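Sample entry follows:

:::
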Amino acid sequence: MIHVAFILNGQETALDCAPDRPLVTILREDLGLTGTKLACGVGRCGACMVLLDGVAVNACLLMAWQVAGRRIDTIEGVRADPRFAPVLEALAQANSFQCGYCAAGVTIALAGALGAGANTDDAALITALEGNICRCTGYQSILHGAQQARARLRAERPT
């Protein structure tokens, strides 16, 4: 067992757990944050994405010892953060999701890609979304929502 302390959605968080306990399990089972989904468990689907120090990563591949002292934002934190409202609104307006299982991971991926600024081009948006599997939409509506989010952020934060 180790004591792990980190910043979770802006709040100091600490718990004792096995060092090799996956972050996705900690979030869902220990902390009750079920927006982060567990699907493939091997980092291929993107359903478990979180922001680790502002970068989108798969929580199923992060172990407890790796998050000590880091900043983690889950979909619950992104939803509550007004900086990401344009991303959420654009994805909803574009009807980007059908079943919604991939929605949290896709939103996190876009928050990571667009969080540093709105100068992300289409190629960078596509690259950011590559780690997310969606079986419902065919991706065009997701990409359209991502482009709308970028446009909204550009309007809010002109360069």
